[in-house]
Amino acid sequence: MKALDGVRILDMTHVQSGPTCTQLLAWFGADVIKVERPGKGDATRSQLRDIPDVDSLYFTMLNHNKRSVTLNTKGERGKAIFTQLIESCDVLVENFAPGALDRMGFSWERIQEINPRIIYASVKGFGPGPYEDCKVYENVAQCTGGGASTTGFPEGPPVVSGAQIGDSGTGLHLALGIVTALFQRETTGRGQRVECAMQDGVLNLCRVKLRDQQRLMHGPLKEYPQYPHGTFGDATPRAGNASGGGQPGWIVKCKGWETDPDAYLYIIAQAAAFNGLAKVVGHEDWLEDPDWNSAEARLPKIDQMFDEIEKWTMTKTKFEAMEILNPLNVPCGPVLSMKELSEEPSLRATGTVVEVDHPERGVYLTVGNPIKLSDSPAEVRRSPLLGEHTDEVLKQVLGMDDEAIAAAKADGAV
Ligand code: CAO
User: Fold this and answer.
1) Alpha helix locations (H) across 326-372?
2) Beta strand residue intervals within 42-116, DSSP E
3) DSSP, res 238
4) Distance between terminal CA atoms of the chain?
5) Cβ atoms within 10 Å of 375's Cβ, excluding its own
6) 100 C-alpha to center of ligand 1: Å?
7) Ligand 1 pocket check for 70: Cβ under 6 Å
8) Is 167 near ligand 1, meaning CB less than 6 Å away?
9) Calpha distance 23→384 (Å, rounded)
């Protein structure tokens, strides 16, 4: 038995944000029925293809454990089938451009009329306000939610992160909203509307930067690289690789950095572990020196301190340095490349990185469910081919017979 066994999701999502959400729910055991346009499907099926005419990794890696149904929800017969699906599902999830579902004739009011118990969940770029009608993709959300203005080096332009905090981050937020609404339905018997704006999701993940915006009003941000030599403006600046927490941290070069772009280690020079760190990097002198032996004394010369630490790390590989620093309780972590992560045995062992077999592309690698439930282990099943389960769902879920299905096919509804 899986945690969400018995929950049926009508999945009208596409691209990344919505599919991330419904894939998580599918891993927890929900029956996710992905509705796609006949002949075309989710646009990502054909985007960034590595093998001709085969569903892209972009699609396969975001749509595991789902069933695919093709349905033209703009035609009359398609709308009738869609109405029946709304009647039969617990949750409807969509991340179309604002108003798309209303234009098809399915407003929240209409959806509630069809099924008062349904939870209707959406991702949009923005919440209500001046930009509510805008279409939004990942990097736009990273810019509008505060991610880009606070990422990068002080002297450089804003930078977007590799982590898809706008899309996958908002999908995660939405999944929590959905299970919370399902939980509340146990008491009220009613469904409800769940909305997540990508701007809001990114800002939530940039919470500490709004913290710093307010701290800035009371003086310079002493853990930022701008302190004490640079200047601060009136907004939270970019902080390079500074730790963002109360302890100084930085990325330092390790042995091989000249040729390996990922030969780096993140080190946090936490006050409690400073003595051991100072000794190992050959600076026992710092322990007796009042210019160095307190966190306050070191604060104005954090850059100098990490330069000295780096002289030592450059003599070790990132893994050797980590092995020496860990027993000293110095928090640190190697910069791992995607190649290293894909080959890491411990991630394979926990199912965080898994191999999946696909009938058209063969074996590929994906990220499994990062949330581990002891009573609901997630197995990763391949993504569906376009319309692979149309007949199955129309029969099993809606009780349609062969004749009705043939008629729906004949007029292009499915
Ligand atoms: N049958 C018939 N029509 C369908 C259909 C189906 N099964 N599925 C989708 N459509 C229609 C929609 O109704 C819409 O039609 P209208 O424009 O006439 O209303 C049309 O397909 C296209 O939908 P769209 O406008 O959402 O798609 P797009 O490629 O132009 O925009 C995106 C994509 C992502 C920018 C937009 O959907 C969006 O802003 N979504 C909300 C924010 C979001 O989730 N962004 C993250 C995307 S991941 O980076």
Assistant:
1) 338-343, 345-349
2) 66-70, 91-94
3) P
4) 32
5) 7
6) 7
7) no
8) yes
9) 12
**Structure-token pair, residue 228:** 């004490």
Other CB atoms within a 10 A radius of the CB of residue 114 amount to 15
Condensed to tens digits (0 to 9), the pLDDT of residues 211-260 reads 999 999 999 999 999 998 889 999 999 999 998 777 899 999 999 999 99
Q: Closest Cα to atom 30, ligand 1: which residue?
A: 97
Cα gap 242→231, rounded to integer Å:
16
In this structure, are residues 353 and 368 in contact, taking their beta carbons and an 8 Å threshold?
A: yes
DSSP string, 275-294: HHHHHHTT-GGGGT-TTTSS
**Considering 11, 42, 167, 212, which one is annotated as catalytic?**
167
Tell me, in angstroms, the distance from the centre of ligand 1 to residue 101's CA. Answer: 9
pTM across the whole model? 0.96
Q: Is 260 a catalytic residue?
A: no
Question: What is the pLDDT at residue 158?
Answer: 98
* Closest atom, ligand 1, to C-alpha of 101: 13
| Total residues belonging to the chain | 414
For residue 97, report the distance from its CA to the centre of ligand 1, in Å: 5
